[in-house]
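FORM 7B: Structural annotation worksheet

SECTION A. Query
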Amino acid sequence: MEELKGISSIPRNSKRAHFDKRVVSEVLEQVYAGVSRKKIMRFYNVSDSTITRWLRDFGSDDYRQNLPKTYSQIQKRSIVTAIEEGRISIPEAQISYGIRSAQTIRGWIAGFESEKAELCVSTPEIMSNKKTEKPSEDIVALRKQLEEAQMKIRALNIMIDIAEDQLKIDIRKKSGARQSGK
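SECTION B. Predicted structure
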């Protein structure tokens, strides 16, 4: 490891303790110099995600522009809604929001489509040769309740998205998540 010279490690009190600022700046210099991340990771005993986070938080503006952007659920939902309503096309969304791949947007659309499919309830019309009768008052009331429940679900999903974005915590249960033992 002749390429790497400098502060190889300043001792930390624990794995959760912060790295010394000199180590962070030295790692960033090595990345800018073109040293492979594997060598940097071994020499400084840091993970790839840590290096990426340092580049995002402390790196130069030129380097940060090349990092992939992350979008909140609210941003994704508004982009997908704009595309579905025909206000913008997928290529226009890519340019406007700096999204590198159209496939990313298509993935978001598919994700939200599956969410919508859960909300949809098919009510097949009963075909008869006779004149169609007006639905009874009970059916009308039930349909109104269903519409209200669907609107409430949509509102709650939006509120959860906003809370997750602002509080930076996962509120929705992930599939396959273990239950806490109490």
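SECTION C. Observations
The chain has eight helices and no strands. The helical segments are 21-33, 37-44, 48-58, 61-65, 73-84, 90-97, 102-119, 137-167.

SECTION D. Sign-off
Analyst initials: ____
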